[in-house]
Amino acid sequence: MKVIFAGTPEFAAVALRALVEAGFEIPLVLTQPDRPAGRGMQLQASAVKQYALSQGIEVLQPLSLRLDSKDTQRAVEALETHERLRATDYDVMVVAAYGLILPRTTLDIKPCINIHASLLPRWRGAAPIHRAIEAGDSDTGVTIMQMEEGLDTGPMLLIERLPIAPDDTTGSLHDKLAALGGEMIVTALRRIGEGSLEAVPQPAEGVTYAAKISKEEAKLDFDLPAVEIARKIRAFNPFPGAHALVNGVPVKIWGAQALEADSDALVGTVLAADAQHGIVVACRRGTLRLTELQKPGGKRLAAAEFLKGFPLEGLCFD
Q: Which SS3 state, helix, strand or coil, does residue 300 take?
């Protein structure tokens, strides 16, 4: 089976690597254009492009796949990409976190299969891993589905569950789901080749949408229950990083534990800031022990180390 692969970040690169190592022929890879990254804002190739080039696989990076784009350059690139797809001998396109919408003109060329990091129909959309942790879901998983024009609405081919551990961050859960997705897409394609895989429509009930994460929502609001704030901190680790202001200084908070004990203090008040008790902050319900923090220009530090250079006693987060 010959596979065209479309994807961009590390989640997708893991799947591409699994396909290559399983012996599938990959004549072409689509990925997002190089983007500025890092402190120097130098152009950086996506994880998928880097791996594809290391394997000698041809890479295309169109700005869009929409033939009706009003932007002339995008429309031309879309047309050239479609011509290239039609000229390529392949059986199926596998898509994983590509970042571009596949229009009907693309979907109609050959079957397209998507690797989605949720238990569809829960968490359709851009940020399923973040949103599952933020919502307090007990489990998540990967769905392999046939693609159609709707947002993650296609029939399901394979679905597997994965528990969300109490200490999972988006970073740690991402890595687990990426590995699972790589295993599952290999299984799915092999079973498609055998004719032993049946597509099942998604349930009409339980549909939720995982909106793209914005940097603005990562600012913590201590006027929430401590358990909700702790989930947000895990959900926004490593991106965009939960943060709060203290004395006008933005402090990133990478780890925290929700405590049941309530406090009558003003929300955001630092109730304790020492080696014995750690950093404990008042919330609307319960309190929050901060375990890992980072000041501007500094390193991520455990609470005890952070306090050596940034005393918090008597201060208030806002």
A: coil
